Amino acid sequence: MKKRVVVTGIGAVTPLGNNVSSTWENIKNGVSGIAPAVRIDVDKIDVKLAGEVKGFEPQNFMDRKEARRMGRFSQFAVAAAKMAFEDAGLQMDMNVIPERVGVWIGSGIGGLGEFEEQYRKFLDKGQRRVNPFTIPMFIPDMASGRVSIELGAKGVNNCSVTACASGSNSIGDAFRAIQHGNADVIVAGGAEASITEMTMAGFSNMTALSTNPDPKTASRPFDKNRDGFVIAEGAGIIILEELEHAIKRGAHIYGEVIGYGSTGDAYHITSPAPDGEGAARAMKLALEDAAIPKEEIDYINAHGTSTPLNDLYETMAIKEVFKEHAFNLSVSSTKSMTGHMLGAAGGVEAIFSLLAIKEGVLPPTINYETPDAELDLNYVPNTAKKKEVNVVLSNSLGFGGHNAALVFKKFAE
Questions:
Q1: Same domain for 24 and 120?
Q2: What is the per-residue pLDDT for 1?
Q3: How confident is the model over 278-307, as a mean pLDDT?
Q4: Domain presence at residue 254
Q5: Is 159 a catalytic residue?
Q6: What is the mean pLDDT of residues 77-88?
Q7: pLDDT at residue 318 above 90?
Q8: An example of a Gene Ontology BP annotation on this entry (predicted)?
């Protein structure tokens, strides 16, 4: 028998706030976290907007000296993980065994900003000016490594690197590990801090980024005038816990993870498969894993990047999977407010999915002004809606043809 897995803690650092409560309040109020980028020099870059984390002070969460030895994405991960661990009421060696606590945090790119900075130093001033911590500052697995050190977690330690599906794949893979008895608790999610000159130049030349100069309306998923995503940064971490372990210690439970599906397009390095074929299979697998009929899904937190192909193909995939029920569903993209947090997106959107269940709130898709005839679902336009939510599906799709879908359910013993 597979073990049941619940979520007992949440933590986040996002463009909308440096904790879950402020981020969620802004989501419910339809506030955009997009603004002109200020942490990098955008004079040579066509696109000037980003979803930067604002006012983040790493020393509030970790030793100042150790923070200087971490990449920014690892700092976000440590902060979000510590908030989630505290929220869960976990205390190492008190109500949880270190060897039974794992960490599984994904990152699509890792510390590219630190790599760029050190490479400039190498070119300008030579080898001896390169920071000796350069490698551990930028390799993607280091968010998991740093969190395990900070928390004292000695169990499974891993990192799923699947581009923009990294956070969701990490949660799904951690879910599987607990189901099969490999851990009692896993700190899971995603972290990213890749708002750099090279990243923005690369995405811009790929024509993936929005060229809309208005920060408040640039990210407009499912709108006819969408023209690309807005890059963002942050971290979203949840505490996955085996049900009996959580009940035994009297933990608060946000919801239950009941399904996970992961597929590959085998089609193109950046373009999704036609008609969202791979995404549809991921959703079908997640529903099969959850062992529920498709009609039980109340809300889909869509990948919804605001790019022409993603939003079209994801809509087509939803209609293929859910048939007539697709038109009864509520579907929204919180990236309209956060921007696209790449490998962190799945972790943050898992939190939004759980809070939608907990509070009975459907997050909106803001900037939805001009309907697209081919995109004809209920995208919760512009304003959050109160509605009982029992089961949520969350999608994450990444370059390389990675597709991940998670199913969360209101907890009932």
A1: yes
A2: 84
A3: 98
A4: no
A5: no
A6: 98
A7: yes
A8: fatty acid biosynthetic process
Q: Are residues 161 and 49 in the same domain?
A: yes
Q: Indicate the pLDDT class of residue 405, thresholds 50, 70 and 90.
A: very high
Residue 186, C-beta contacts closer than 8 angstroms, at least 6 positions apart: 101, 102, 103, 104, 155, 156, 174, 177, 178, 239, 240
Beta strands in 98-244 (DSSP E): 101-106, 157-158, 185-192, 234-242
Q: Let me know: does 399 contact 252? Beta carbons within 8 Å.
A: no
Under a CB-based contact definition with an 8 Å cutoff, are residues 197 and 343 in contact?
A: no
How far apart CA 292 and CA 86 sit, in angstroms, is: 32
Non-local (6+) Cβ contacts of 343 within 8 A are: 106, 107, 108, 109, 140, 161, 163, 164, 166, 167, 190, 191, 192
Q: Is the pLDDT of residue 127 over 90?
A: yes
Residue 390 belongs to domain with CATH number:
3.40.47.10
Residue 241 has pLDDT above 90, yes or no: yes
Same domain membership, residue 227 and residue 165:
yes
Cβ neighbours of 333 (radius 10 Å): 32
Q: What is the pLDDT of residues 258-268, one digit of tens each?
A: 999 999 999 99
For the record, the structure tokens of 104 come out as: 């599984």
Q: How far is CA 8 from CA 97, 362, 364, in A?
A: 16, 21, 25
Q: What's residue 343's pLDDT?
A: 98
DSSP annotation string for 78-89: HHHHHHHHHHTT
- Reported confidence tier of residue 413, pLDDT bands at 50, 70, 90: confident
H/E element holding 278? helix 277-290
What element of type H or E holds 313? helix 308-322
The DSSP symbol for 383 reads S
Catalytic residue among 147, 164, 331, 342: 164
